[in-house]
Structures are given as structure tokens and as C-alpha cells.
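Follow-up to my post from last week.
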Amino acid sequence: MPIRNPFRRQPSTTARRRILPFLATAAVTAVALSACSAPTTAPRGPEFFDWSDVQVAADGQTVKLWMWGGDDQGNAYVDDVLAPAAAAQGVTLERVPIADTKDALNRVFTELQAGRTTDGAVDLVWINGDNFRTGKQADAWLCDWTGLLPNMAAVSDTDPLLTEDFGTPVDGCEAPWHKAQFSFVYNSATVPNPPTTIEGILEWAEANPGRFTYPAAPDFTGSAFLRSVLYSESGGHENVPSAYSDEAFDELSPALFDRLEALTPSLWREGSTYPATSEQLTKLYADGEIDMMMTYGPATLTALVENGTLPDTTRVLTVDDGTLGNASFFGIPSNSGNIAGAMVVANEALSVEQQVAKADPTVWGQFTVLDLDALSTADRALFEALPQSPVVPSFDVLSRNANPELSAEWVPALDEAWRTRIAAGQ
Amino acid sequence: MTAVPTVTTVTTPLAPGPARPRRRQLRAALLVLPAVIPVAIVVIGGVGATLLQSLGLMPLVGAAELSTAAFDDTDELLTSALLSLSIAVVSTAIAAVVGFFTAVLIISGNWGGRIVTVLSAAAVTVPHLVGAATVGLLLSDSGVLARLFGISPDAWPALVAGPTWFAVIAEYAWKESAFIALIIVGTLATRITSYDEAAAVLGAHRSARLRLVLFPLAAPSLLVASAIAFAYTLGSYEVAWMLGATYPEPLSVMALRLFNTASLTARPEAAAIGVITVVLTAAVVGAAMLGLRRMRAWR
Amino acid sequence: MTLSTSNVDMERAQREQRERRMPGDAGRPLSQSRGVMRTARIVSTVLVALWFALPFLPLVLWSFANSWSAPDVLPMSVGTDGLTAAIANGAVAAFGDSLLLSLIVAAIATPVGAMAARALSRHGLPFGRLVSVLLFSPVLLPPFAAVLGINVVLLRAWVPPEIGVILVLVVVAIPYTTFSMLVAYAAYDDGFDEAARTLGATSRFALWRIHLPLIAPALARSAFLAFLVGWSDYLVTLVVGGGQLVTLPLIIASSASGIGNESSVAVLSLSAVIPPLILLGLVSRARNLNPGRQS
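User reply:
Got it. Predicted complex:
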């Protein structure tokens, strides 16, 4: 049959030299383009004298905001509320929807690796915690710029949630956007007497086999659950030093993993597998396979209950030992080509109007980063007039006894140990 | 047509003269160059840069230093490589069998063939990411099938994220069987009728025609399409990440996790897994292609 | 005066053309199966149809579901919330971007692959085997490795992101187009071209009036495969494109990574199936165009 095999030997010829030199050239060029050591990227500071400089430079710029696109409310808020406000100041805001914030970071890293230090494709990223720290390690963030933002005046400069991001000093390298509180969520129809402590939750899980699980580390939520149990097993967050050290890890982590090991047989599917993401965990809860779950983004719960994804008996559990709290931020990559425009957007996002709109549970329900005591009475009244979510308590209630986040070095150490000890069952 | 074309003696790529081999070679080289240039840039650049990263020569921070440390964790790599290979082999085998019979049904050209044509074509167009999402919705503990049969989540077998990797294999087999069918139909369509008719006229039985005419005609395409499916299955990560179990993890999922990990030092390890995946795929596909040459030689 | 053959030959050619069977054509089986064989054929057809159709079931059901929780067998409330959410997410613009990108990729990869296949299918290409291996090699590259490595190269060479995406996707598509054209050329009879040239046709005339019409169906199939490469890509578009191109898979992936978006993801996914299906319908209509047709 005359079907030609592409790998079949062709008759040798005399003109072979035409292709080989070409291939060699292509190869050498390609490798030469990639093979250099990391370009030195000294952190870039802002080149602006004051805010009016920024505004002048920003006029007419298009800012690409890379943000996780899995939250329709968040997408709609940015497209319909934040973008028009930015447009009014001459800045076009375009949202790049991504499935994982790491995609944005990796894009920036690759650009820096390739020596592209002034015309990056990413102008603004919604980040926090480990992404911020990883970027800071690689000098990927623009620093010392938040001081220029006029709206930073209403942000407390002593609030530990906003001056440190997972133990990494913020240093003006990111502007706060909203606060979040790690929350346990339960179905009040199937859990009539919910536990009131973290240890209580674990005991409840053991008393109700198969009705509880947590996302596999290194998922953000799963990883936060590990830190919560670490605090609980160590007798409170005061007993865990925020700065990472091997000694502290060796001293404190065995109790955590012994406890989780004991818990494993009582988990969903006997702990033989774990949801890969916090969304998969929420899906298990939505389908009634588990009765309790956790989230670092309680803001979205209201809408999920309203549109019927989650049962309307869903409630947020407030625990006596308190839960982890953090804030999320806007970062500007050091190689962004539209720094001024990005700063205008970050500043606008911190305005009272934007923060109030965003805190409305029917819009997005994200907790404000503004210091309410520093606001005028009229502005404060705007926040107080916001409708109360039937599912999520107010931030005051939720953040009672809030635990600080550990420094970001703890995160990979705990994640890795969890993989070898719990997931691999070694 | 209005004018009488004048007779010329210029040889063209389309009507080569018997002589002048050098000229023919030059023309052939020119024809192939637009494909070779971009492929060479992308493949050599891609593999080269991945290799350099795996050897620590393209660090994100710090100085470049040659090191093979990224290839060291052999135990875990071996487990992952075996898992990746098993998933790829099983799903490709299923896809090859289903794909071949689908192609036969399509070629047979009756009403059933038409339905199968449309459905398999629809399956080819679905991105794997969507395929994984929909297979997840179909097979999970409280998925559409479990609901249809009225089976409670506890009683439903652990198809998604279970120890058998059932959902992952099912998704790859589903998508790739449609792809393999499409390729085989493309090959057979142009010529099958005449051979099949000849065989039928000569009195060959249905099954004999399948075995002696259809299969040999389809075999090279089947092999090449299966090799492509295999390579894809080994290299892609979305499906195994969305539908697979937490531990152990296939190579591609491991690479992605390390690439996205909080510490920058893990990136060479991710690149190393990329290199290993390329080598593994090349070995298996190379063996398949040698098999193809054997097949040709034998016939 | 034309090249065309006698009326008798024309009729024969037309009859042959009608009889040439293409994928999707209803053929005329020479022997109708009966009894057991017939049952077996029907059963296997149903099974194969089910195999391909089943994964679409959740998509179809979810597309019209405003809310649907376990253990309800069917959606609890039916509506178009999914469609509304998909449009709000920028689905229309993404649809346009996807279509444009895929058509460009197909428009480049198809002729390039056909030319390469033509060169490979005839002896005389220097280093033919090496070239074959090279052109097939993009298949072996895991997408993440390609993107991990190639993006640094492209950025360092200051290739604009849109061009970079097209370049990488064309390369990914070349093995498919080359292979499918290789198969077509293996069955191609050079006699047609030679006859035309012998009868005095210019090379351009032979190419446009004889050669291309004869390989049109194979070209259409190649173009379809290349189109699919652009149509379903996520990683390259995102990482190499750097956010310049927001295609349908990008929207689908980011929506699918959230919770409670099943119905908009389902609408997006089903709408993503339609353009390639239309294209395939056109492809399967492509016939060996009548060589030497009057213009």
C-alpha cells in the first residue's frame, strides 16, 4: 500500500548540506537567545515626584489586570464598577481572566528571565501571601509606591494585616485591596450542634466519619487549614513563632501531623484522596457529600447560597480560638510598562466609594481594608448602612481573636511534610 | 479557459523532469523550508531552554551553576513515570480500539455511521480542559450518572480521584478515540471503496474484508494517530490534575506543582521533569515508528 | 480550445466523482448484513454513539440549569442564567478572538504542511528522514515544557506576543497537517500533473486547475486539524500571548476554576463545539474538484 511512512529512509543525495547548516544555525540562535544567566533586576522604584506626576503619566494608559477569573461577582465588580471609575481618570482597565494567580507570576518571571524589564504584559495582579513572597524573592515587584497613593491615607499604617503579608514586610510593594478571614462553613440542617473550637471540629469529624475533608496542600485553603491545626495543636498561635526555623518546625510539626494522621480514617473516602482545590471541596459540600468545609474567601458564600449552589442552611462557624486572617493586595510587576496607570487603578480601588460598593454582599461582599475610625462620619455611615449577609457574619464577629498568618517560609515546609507524611502515608 | 497554453519545458515542483536531480533537490528543500524553520526554532529553542533550566543554567535568582540536583529524587520520579506510562498506555490502547471500530462504522456509511460521524467529530472539538470538567460532572460521586441511576454518593464507586484513575483514563480514551477515528477515516476515505469493492466482488466475506483489507489499510494511520495520542496523554496535565488522586501524581502534574510552588528553587526540578517526559515520549514513539517501518518491510 | 477531454470522459469523471465516498457520505454497502451480523452492527453502533455522546450529557443539562443540586436527577429550575453569565464574562469578544486565531493558524499551517508533505512524498529531498522526524517532533513536546522553554526564547528575541502565539501554534499544528497531506500524497497520482504539462499547461495552470482541486479534500481535512489546534489551546495562548489574546478556552478555564459556574461553563463549552462542527461539515462536502473545470 502506498501509504508513506514519514520516517522512512529517503535515498541519500548529494545536496544534503542545504538543510544541516540551516538547522545548526537555528539551533545555535535559539539556544544563544535563551542561555544566559539571570539578568540582574534591581528593584525599580517609582520615577514620580508626586501624585499629579502619576496622574499625568497615567492618562491614556491601558492597564492589564491579571486576576483569578473563577468568581463571577468579582469579575462583574471589576468590569462594571472599577473599570468605569478608572476610565473616568483616563485609564483603560482590562481584566485578564486566569485560572491560577501563579500564571501571572510565571509570566512576569519569564519576562524577567528573558531580560524584558520595562515592557511587561502584566501591569497589575491580585495577590497575597506566597505569591507576594515568591515575587519579592525574585525582585519582581515594584516597591515604595503605595506612599504616593492619596487614598492610602484612610488605611491604617499599624494594622499588622496590612503591614505584613504572611510575615513578609509589605514595604510599599503592594497596595491593600480587601481583607479576608479563614472561615469554617457548615450545614446547619445536618450539624445542629456545631463545635466551637478547631479541636472540636476535628472531634466532630471523627464522630461523623466521611463527612469532613480538606483540600490537598499546596492548595491555598488546604495549606491554611494545616496552619490552623498547627496553632490549635500547639496550644494557640502565641506558641508558634512567626519566623520560620528548622528547630521550631521540628518541635511543633510532629503534633500537627500525628493529629492529622489520626484524623485521616474519618475523612471523606477515608483520606485516600483529597480535593485538589478549594473549589472541589466546595463542590463536595454543595453536593451534600460533606457537612463542613472551609474557605479563605467567605465573601463569595452569600451569592453561592442565593443562587442555589449551596444549601440555604449554610452558616459560617465562628470558633473561640479564632481563625487566620489576611489581606489581599494589588501588586505592580517591576517590569510593567504602565506603572502610573496601575497606580491610578490601585488608588481608585481604595476610594471610599469603591470599597463600599465592593463590600456590598450583593456586589461582591469583600471586607474593606479602610480604617473605619479614620473616616468621616458620613463615609463611615456608608459602610454601616450596607445590608447584612444572611450567611456571613460581619467582619467584627468573624475576625474576633483573629490569628496572624505565619511567615511565608512555613508554607512550603508544612505543605511538603504533609505530602510525604499524610498524602503518601509514609 | 480562453488561451491555449504554450508548451514549455521548464520543470516545476509539480511536474518534475526525470533528469536534473540537484535542481529537484533544491526545489524539494525550498518546499520544506517554511515548515522546517518555525519547527526548528520552537522545538530546539523549547527543549534547549528547558534543558538549560533543568541544569540550573537559567536561574531566576542568583548565578548560573551547572548542577544535576534537579534529577536526583529518583524514587518519586520512578513512581510518577510508571503511573504516567500506565495511564497513557491504557487510555491509548482503548482509544485505538474504539477509534478503529468507529472509523469502520463511519466508512460503512449507513445512518448509524452518520450519527457516529457527527458525535465523534463533536468530541474531537472539545478542549481537554472542558472534557475533564464534563467527565467529572458525569462520573463523580454525585454526578449525572449517579443521579440518573439513583445511587447514593457512598455507594457510587470512586471513579473520580479514585485509586484506579478511571475518570482520567476515560477522558483521554474518549477524546483520543475520536481523534484516531478522524485520522483513520481521512486516510481510508480516499481509497477504501475500490479495495473493498474489489474484495467483495472477489467474494471476500465481511469479516475477511475487515481483517484483510480495512485493517492493513488503516494500520499505519492507526499507529501514527495512536502515537500522537500517547504523546499527548503523557505530556498534558489538566485532566490528571482535575480528575486524579492526590498521591501518587503523574509526571506532568508533578512538574506543574513544582513549577508553581512557592519556592523558586523548585523550578529546575519542574524543568527536569519536562526533560524526562520528552525523553520518555520520544523513546516510546520512536519504538512505535520503528514498528511502523517493520510493518512496511514485512508487507 | 481547451484541455478538456471528450464529453464521454467528462461524464465518466462526473460519475466517478459522485461515487467517490467521503467521510460522512451515505455509501451503498455491497452486501447488506442480515440476522446476527445486523444485530451486532446495530448494537455496536449504539454503543459507540453512546460512548461519544455521554460526556455531552452534563453539558447539555447544565447549559439550561439555573440551579441543580444533588440528588435531583434533572435541573431544579431551567433558564438562561448560564448564557447571561457567559456573555457578561466576555464570551462574545473571546469567540471572535478564538475564531481569528484559529483561522490564521489554519491558513498558515495548512499550505506549509502541504508543501512539506509534497517535498517529503517525492524522493530527492536531502535529509528526508531527519526532516520527517523534525516535523513530527512538536507532538513529543509536552505543552508545559514547550511553553516553559520557548517563551524565554521568544521574549528574548522581542517577538510580539501575538506573533509568538501564532508561531508556536502553527508549529504545534504542522505535524498534523504534514501527516495528513503525506497520506494524501501517497495516494496521489502524479500522472494528472504530468498529463496536463504534456498537453501544454503552464505550471501555474497545472497547480491551480489540476493539482489543488485534486488534493482539496485532504487540504480541507488538514485545515480542520490545524483550526482545532488554535481553537482548543489554553496554555500557549495564555503564557506566550501574555493576556493580549483572551480566547474562549481562557474564559472557560478561568470560569471552570471557580465554584457555581457550571452552567456558564457548559454554555461556553457547547458553543465552542459549534464552529468546528460547521467547519467539518464544509470539509466533508469538499470533493475532489473537477480537474480542468472551465473557468
